[in-house]
Amino acid sequence: MSTSTSDIIAAAGTSKGGFYNHFKTKEELFHEILGAARKIWRERNLHGLDDEPRPLEKIRLLLENYRDRYLADSKNFPGGCIFVNLVVELSDQAPSLADEVNEGLVRLGSMIKRFLDEEKKAGGIGNSVNTSDAANLIFSGLLGACVLYTSDKSLKRLNSTIVSLIAYLRSMDTGR
């Protein structure tokens, strides 16, 4: 975290006293921002998942939400997904903070795998599907879509990637 506390104070238009009245360190500010970002991520990306009866449909909706309700909102998120950006930026500068951000990404991958395992157990996908590999492909595709969209803001490419991931999901569906 190479940004100085003075730079943060100047960018926020506050005073040292104002900053230190709320935060002891810039790391404490980081944790506060991270908590708020997680809340926004959950509200946007998990929206409606509880209403979907099938785990495969939960993954489909998660992918669509990530595209439509989160990532494509360049007005509120001009830099793309804050978590992907932070984990890349912090990996060399502040590994412990990067690890904390990465923990959320690991949980996302685990959630996708859990949904696939539930669908497999219910007979919605075939026994030959390796849910670890499938979850990794979906998760990697999602993160790849984020990186590409962040770099070029191409809604067409973002949509194409998400549509391809959904087609992959549907290709596993046994139509139970």
Report what the structure shows:
This protein is mostly helical. The chain has one domain (36-172): Tetracycline Repressor, domain 2, CATH 1.10.357.10. Helices cover 74% and strands 0% of the residues. The protein is built from eight helices and no strands. It has helices at residues 5-12, 16-22, 26-45, 55-71, 82-93, 95-121, 131-152, 155-172. The longest helix is centred in the middle third of the chain and has 27 residues, at 95-121. The radius of gyration is 19 Å and the shape is elongated. It starts with a helix and ends with a helix.
Mean pLDDT: 88
What is Rg?
19 Å
Question: What is the chain-wise order of helices and strands?
Answer: HHHHHHHH
**Overall number of strands:** 0
How much of the sequence lies in strands comes to: under 5%
Count of domains: 1
Structural category: mainly alpha
Topology-level CATH name:
Tetracycline Repressor, domain 2
| Outline | elongated
How many helices?
A: 8
Compact description:
With 176 residues, the chain is mainly α. The chain has helices at residues 5-12, 16-22, 26-45, 55-71, 82-93, 95-121, 131-152, 155-172. The chain has 8 helices and no strands.
Keywords:
Tetracycline Repressor, domain 2, 176 residues, mainly alpha, 0% strand, 74% helix, single chain, elongated
Secondary structure layout:
Blueprint (H helix, E strand, L loop, with lengths): L4 H8 L3 H7 L3 H20 L9 H17 L10 H12 L1 H27 L9 H22 L2 H18 L4
Helix pairs in contact: 4-6, 4-8, 5-6, 6-7, 7-8
